[in-house]
Write a structure and sequence with these properties.
Blueprint: H1 6-22, H2 28-52, H3 63-72, H4 79-83, H5 85-96, H6 105-121
Helix pairs in contact: 1-2, 1-6, 2-3, 2-5, 2-6
Length: 125
């Protein structure tokens, strides 16, 4: 079985997040699942960047912990990720166990656009 790299998986998560919001019946349950895949996309992109820089990343879904690894190692990170680390983490941890984070569609769509740019910035790495 072929191993799939983190950046490819991040792109797939982002595509899933986007497609879920495009469904005609995209209600709250789809918004939460979309937000979950958005967080996974950001997390996997961050882990890809850490790995590409020879840094062992934490086995965590906590974006704040990954942000700390970026800063501790002098790596640049888009400000929107740092500013929304707790919210992004909640998209993964709260929705995973059945709690709704009451994601706001407009915010998720905005994050999707920024996550796409974040992934594209690192496609050559």
């Amino acid at each position: 079985m072929k191993k799939i790299d983190l950046l490819t998986r991040a792109a797939w998560d982002l595509e899933s997040s986007t497609e879920l919001l495009n469904l005609p019946q995209a209600d709250e349950k789809f918004l939460d699942i979309s937000a979950y895949h958005l967080q996974q996309s950001v997390e996997k992109t961050m882990k890809h960047i850490l790995a590409q820089n020879g840094i062992r990343f934490e086995k965590t879904h906590d974006i704040e912990i990954l942000c700390k690894q970026f800063f501790d190692n002098g790596l640049e990170l888009p400000e929107w990720i740092f500013d929304n680390a707790t919210l992004l983490t909640n998209y993964a941890t709260k929705t995973r166990y059945g709690d709704s984070v009451l994601a706001i569609r407009k915010r998720v769509v905005g994050f999707q656009k920024m996550a796409k740019e974040f992934i594209e910035m690192h496609c050559d790495s």
